[in-house]
Input
Amino acid sequence: MLRWLDQRFIENPIRRAQANSDIRAREQRYNVFREGEERSNRNVQSEVRSKLEVNLPTSQLAIQANQGIVTVTGYVQTQDNLERIEPLAREIKGVRDVNVQAEVGPKLPPYKG
Output
């Protein structure tokens, strides 16, 4: 659910690569300053949300995390997008399992909250 990015920004492959790089950098900073600590539910949830928002911009997803188990609910536009949720979420350190309860739904406009 995009709140601060407009659709043109996300659809640009250079911008998407930059956003993914920013996500990796945030994770690396976390690793440096909190080495050995287990990631909080809130931190894992935030990282997964960012990863999915950037890579599946037309989806409407909600993310919950509990002790490394991430649950994703909501809607995506295609089966391909649905199948991308789990591998994208697993890229985030601290994710132990992904429970995808999202569905392929109708054509969804970008979230404008």
In short: The first strand starts at residue 60 and ends at 66.
